[in-house]
Design brief:
With 84 residues, the protein is mainly alpha-helical. It has one domain (20-79). It has helices at residues 9-16, 21-39, 47-80. Helix 2 (21-39) packs antiparallel against helix 3. The longest helix has 34 residues, at 47-80.
Length: 84
Amino acid sequence: MITTDKLPSHLLKAVEAGGDGLDVLQGELKNLMYETEQQMDPLDKSPDEMLELRGFMDALTSMYILSYKIQFAIEDWRKANGNN
């Protein structure tokens, strides 16, 4: 049973279409990074707001990198164990 109240509709559609969890996560992280980047106009933001946005972007970037490391580790493990 899929709990529709916990995911935004665009993510739920990706899950229902059979999307791999890491692929869905990576796509959403990329979207969030883009949206955050669009908000990072120093002329419209206070120094505190810019610091907060940079911190959020750093966290998103770290999670994006980690998701790829996990994906590559899973692929390597599958190849090593004959589970393509």
